[in-house]
């Protein structure tokens, strides 16, 4: 039996968490070939490809509107550091890919931020990188979102707010209309 001091140090693994959403996912079942909630090892020298062609892509999306190979993720070690990262490349000639609102055309690539939203067509993918030390492989962990990742934000109307701080919408909700008051009357 080896002692605690002589035991090998456990190496942590970089894990790429990907949360998928599509508005028609319940009816169209485009994610049926993906294994959710299970970590999967990917060799560091393999390119993780996403698209509809199951023979060319590690992660298949069963949707005719998805390109044969939509995009790829490449694991790499940053120059002169021990840090790792991912590079995302758009491999679709027809569909632009956005990464945190940066638009990528065909064959454009950028470093994947530590947390970002990848969009193409109606697809939304939240990507989160969990750092690790292993250099021979990384892991992917896929999740399915029940609600849209990108929510349409309802911004309040840009109406001026009077100096007394009471918004005109307050009066409308009270069934009263705002009245103009002279400063000297206060």
UniProtKB/TrEMBL annotation:
Coiled-coil portions: none
Keywords, in A-Z order: Cytoplasm, Immunity, Innate immunity
Subcellular location: Cytoplasm
A biological process from GO: innate immune response
Chief subcellular location: cytoplasm
Residue span(s) of domain FHA: 49-121
GO cellular component, as recorded: cytoplasm
InterPro entries referenced in this protein's UniProt entry, alphabetically: FHA_dom, SMAD_FHA_dom_sf, TIFA
Domain of life where this protein originates: Eukaryota
Endoplasmic reticulum is among the record's keywords: no
PANTHER family reported for this sequence: TRAF-INTERACTING PROTEIN WITH FHA DOMAIN-CONTAINING PROTEIN A, TRAF-INTERACTING PROTEIN WITH FHA DOMAIN-CONTAINING PROTEIN A FAMILY MEMBER
Similarity annotation: Belongs to the TIFA family.
Protein name, per record: TRAF-interacting protein with FHA domain-containing protein A
Species for this entry: Aegithalos caudatus (Long-tailed tit)
Organism ancestry: Eukaryota, Metazoa, Chordata, Craniata, Vertebrata
């Amino acid at each position: 039996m080896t002692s605690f001091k002589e035991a090998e140090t456990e190496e942590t693994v970089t894990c790429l968490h990907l949360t998928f959403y599509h508005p028609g996912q319940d009816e169209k079942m485009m994610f049926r070939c993906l294994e959710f909630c299970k970590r999967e090892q990917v060799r560091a020298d393999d390119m993780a490809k996403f698209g509809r062609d199951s023979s060319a892509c590690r992660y298949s999306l069963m949707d005719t509107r998805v390109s044969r190979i939509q995009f790829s993720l490449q694991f790499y070690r940053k120059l002169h550091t021990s840090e790792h990262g991912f590079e995302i490349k758009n491999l679709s000639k027809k569909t632009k890919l956005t990464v945190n609102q940066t638009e990528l055309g065909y064959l454009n690539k950028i470093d994947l931020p530590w947390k970002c939203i990848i969009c193409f067509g109606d697809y939304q993918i939240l990507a989160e990188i969990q750092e690790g030390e292993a250099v021979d492989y990384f892991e992917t962990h896929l999740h399915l979102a029940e609600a849209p990742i990108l929510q349409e934000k309802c911004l309040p109307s840009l109406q001026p707010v009077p100096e007394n701080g009471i918004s005109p919408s307050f009066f409308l909700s009270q069934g009263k209309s705002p009245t103009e008051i002279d400063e000297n009357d206060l």
